[in-house]
Amino acid sequence: GQQEQAVVSTQSTGQRFMAQSAITFESLQKLQKRTSTDEDLKLTDLFKYYQRETQAAKSLLYRRGRALADKEIAEGKLEQAQKKFKDIPTAEAYLEDCKIRFESISDMAKTELDTFKNRRLETYRKHLVDMSELQIRHSQSIISELTKGLELLKDL
């Protein structure tokens, strides 16, 4: 700031050069910290998105696995009913319900996983664009700060 500039103006040329360089490097360091923080936040947002999406996919696959297990249990109950010649229509109806539920969840899982894949690709693409724009903005700030520092050093 102005105080730093006042200190620089009362020193020899070499001292002013070193002091002005230090001021410029301090400004660059602040910009680098801001850049790092912004990039960390962007990456954290992407990671949280993937966490949510992955949890949803895992939950769906768990429900599908549970439906498959129910179907297999129903098949076992039907076999038992057929061996005992008892409650065969009930066991068949239960098995049919389990099959329908399993197929329904399987179809939904295929659709959901395709949707997840498309959303993931779109989100990744958008994230790359956002990160690139962020890096460009920060690079422009750094170039501006370096240019300003060089101009001040030329004036010494």
Stretches where pLDDT is under 50 for at least 5 consecutive residues are none
Main sheet: strands, sense, barrel? none
Order of helices and strands: HHH
Radius of gyration: 33 Å
- Mean pLDDT comes to 91
Portion in strands: under 5%
Shape: rod-shaped
Helical element count?
3
Beginning-to-end CA distance, first to last residue: 17 Å
What's the β-strand tally? 0
Explain how this protein is built:
This protein has 156 residues and is mostly helical. It is 94% helix and 0% strand. The protein has helices at 2-9, 13-84, 88-154. Helix 2 runs antiparallel to helix 3 (88-154). It is rod-shaped, with a radius of gyration of 33 Å. The two termini are 17 Å apart. The model has no long low-confidence stretch (mean pLDDT 91).
Helix and strand topology:
Layout: H1 2-9, H2 13-84, H3 88-154
Helix pairs in contact: 1-2, 2-3
Features:
156 residues, mainly alpha, 3 helices
Short recap of the structure:
The protein is 94% helix and 0% strand. The chain contains three helices and no strands.
